[in-house]
Amino acid sequence: MSNIEDYNAKLETIKAIPVEEVKEPAMPVDASLQEAENLHHWSMDDAEALKVVGVTMAMITDLPVCAGACREAQSIWNKDFRSQKDAEKLWGVQAPLAFDFRNDLLQTLRFAYRKDTSLLGRVAAITDGNTNADMIQDLNDIAVLGRENPAPLTAISFDFTQLDLAATRADELADVLAEANGDKADQNESKIIRDRAHTHLKMLVDEIREAGKYVFRKNKDRLKGYSSQYWKKQSHKKKDSDSQISE
Q1: Tens digits of residue pLDDT in 40-85
Q2: How far apart, in whole angstroms, are the C-alpha atoms of residue 209 and residue 213?
Q3: H-state helical runs in the chain
């Protein structure tokens, strides 16, 4: 099956994993996927021996399916993560312009409403707070206030399309900020699904590895296929680093 077919086939199982069992990948996902594929091919040759301790052929053949589902989940998460990074860059460009736009509109309102203490009080209330979220809300509040009290603005030849633009920018910037902060529901969901898919794969990998290590505990040639090469390399790197430090 293709990765997307694996993903669709496993999605309900992945979603059913209890939240307390879900963990973020401790190693790069691409390395984890490759090790699962390697384990599949390695354990196929040991299917009869592993069957004795409860590892079925179905479990072994399920490895590439779980890996395919996880690979697709990782791709979806990567797409959303890149979207978040793009949103961060976009926010970095648009936010300063939006703050300037808000400040300019507030100056216009203060001038237009300078003879009305009630309206000036509402303008002052809008200026409270200077966070990103405040700025977005301010733009919408300015649009509402201006539309409700047009006469003083008309008297100074104000361009009312600026109020429409303020409201539109508030909506647009709210979406950009949510994406930049990773608060969009689809981004959070894709991250959760990726973690669940990897957890599902790791549970199967760990079970087969544990069985293999037991069955082949006296056979070094077969035993080596049931260990993580990634963590072995990491261990060797640490030993080399520690050795250089001690020297």
Answers
A1: 999 999 999 999 999 999 999 999 999 999 999 999 988 877 788 8
A2: 6
A3: 3-15, 29-44, 47-51, 57-112, 117-126, 132-148, 151-155, 161-180, 185-215, 220-223, 229-246
